[in-house]
Write a structure and sequence with these properties.
Length: 469
């Protein structure tokens, strides 16, 4: 019989209740198929495109067919042929932010430091205007650069189409609640200001005194836990939330209403971390999937939400780089027809490629842990398990790629794994199966592997015989 082997990441407080984990695999849903409605695909490989002389990669953004990169202590321009030009020295750190304006200026901000590169003159200038107070990020709204003053309720703007010049009177205070501003983002020509416990929306006006006003009726009683967790995609904004009642839930905005998209397992995992205010996120869309990639550096964990999957229990997975813990990607830019990501340790820039089977120079170690298999807690004899992989993909040297199956009777301690063949190249009728799996009243299976081949798991089948007690 077919059993529910596939799914997303939502292992919770007790593995006895729910042990499901999905690592370096994501769910694909196709409702036109009768048997294979749900499939697990291995995440894309990371193909090296270029290595910058500085490391790590802090921020990347595409502007007018070039990519601007903050790496180590340098600012760089990368062209379509992956030619690299050094633009100047900068002082930045994790969470650095890049924005642009219509005058051809590229603004780089990291905490109290700011820099503007003029694409016309080719000069890099440090932001020294006394009315520039630093900011957790920079964004662009209708000609103005937007910033928030650290440790305050104030946000401020630059002069029109000039990131270098500020008027000390061009600021406003977000006083909907007496909490400080944490972060912000511009979306659909509106400024969304995230406080510690509340969020407000501002829009552009024709007021000559200050060109922004707060939108009435759009105040939300959820704020932001991590300044750099705010990202937009799929016509909305995603963020790690905080309110007067707690924190550690992940939200997206449904117009002006925060909607929880995390499941209970993800929320338990996030709240088990010692620190979550250091989380950062980026987003990208590929092959119909919309990914919100949320990394917790201190906890060394990367959690990914797929907005194309409506069920939060199916939509999440974990990404890990082998022997690193978290995923190595620190930022993303779509340019030259490629999804580019920067390395959190080296100066490497990779492209995401489903046909490349390595994470840079490391294997991609994937795994899936099933739901519990229980039948009124009667003793079950597990005769055989068949895993329906896309087989016959083989290794380039002609050898047989392997995956491994193990199981647990409590969701925590697993036995020594068994090898299962995925079939040499062309051996497409190969069955991934193993037999004589013992007896259990409660059983959880885990399949894992790292062979550098296309990895697609479309389901699992099990032959069990129930006892009388």
């Amino acid at each position: 019989m077919q059993f529910n082997f596939l799914g997303g990441q939502h292992k919770g407080f007790s593995a006895k209740q729910n042990a499901q984990e999905t690592v370096n695999m994501f769910v694909e849903v196709d409702m036109t198929e009768s048997d294979n409605k749900i499939t697990l695909y291995r995440v894309d490989g990371k193909r090296l495109e270029v290595t910058l002389p500085d490391a790590p990669i802090y921020a990347m953004a595409e502007f007018r067919n070039d990519v601007y990169v903050a790496a180590g202590s340098g600012f760089y321009r990368v062209t379509a042929g992956f030619g690299v030009t050094y633009l100047g020295a900068v002082t930045v750190t994790v969470g650095a932010s890049i924005s642009f304006n219509n005058a051809g200026q590229v603004c780089l901000v990291s905490n109290n430091n700011g820099y503007v590169y003029d694409t016309i003159s080719g000069s890099l200038t440090t932001m020294t205007d006394p009315a520039f107070y630093g900011s957790v990020r920079v964004d662009y709204l209708s000609g103005y650069g937007v910033f928030i003053k650290p440790n305050s309720q104030q946000f401020y703007i630059s002069n029109l189409n000039n990131f270098l010049v500020f008027n000390g009177l061009d600021f406003a205070s977000d006083e909907a609640d007496p909490d400080n501003l944490v972060s912000f983002i511009v979306d659909h020509i509106e400024l969304i200001l995230f406080g510690e416990k509340t969020t407000t929306v501002w829009f552009v006006t024709d007021d000559s005194t200050f060109p922004l006003a707060r939108r009435e009726g759009a105040t939300m009683e959820v704020g932001c836990s991590a300044a750099h967790s705010v990202a937009k995609m799929d016509n909305t904004v995603f963020f790690l939330g905080k309110s007067s009642y707690g924190e550690g839930l992940v939200y997206k905005l449904n117009q002006y209403t925060p909607q929880i998209i995390s499941n209970r397992g993800i929320e338990f995992l996030i709240n088990s971390f010692d620190r979550i205010d250091d989380a950062f996120a980026y987003t990208y869309q590929k092959n119909g999937h919309s990914f919100y990639v949320l990394t917790f550096p201190d906890a060394n964990k990367t959690l990914v939400y797929d907005a194309s999957i409506p069920d939060p229990d199916m939509a999440w997975h974990v990404r890990e780089t082998y022997e690193l813990g978290r995923d190595r990607a620190s930022c993303h830019a779509f340019a030259f027809g490629k999804h580019l990501v920067g390395d959190c340790i080296t100066g490497n820039i990779y492209s995401l490629d489903e046909n490349y089977h390595y994470d840079g120079d490391q294997p991609i170690a994937w795994s899936r842990t099933s739901p519990h298999i229980i039948s009124d807690f009667k003793r079950l004899r597990h005769i055989e398990v068949v895993l329906n992989f896309e087989t016959g993909v083989g290794l380039e040297d002609g050898s047989d790629p392997l995956c491994y199956l193990t199981y647990s009777s409590d969701g925590q301690e697993f036995i020594t794994p068994r090898e299962i063949s995925m079939g040499v190249i062309g051996q497409r009728r190969n069955r991934c199966q193993t037999a004589r799996l013992g007896n259990s009243r409660d059983r959880v299976y885990r399949v894992f592997g790292s062979a550098p081949v296309k990895t697609v798991l479309t389901g699992g089948y099990i032959d069990v015989k129930a006892g009388n007690t």
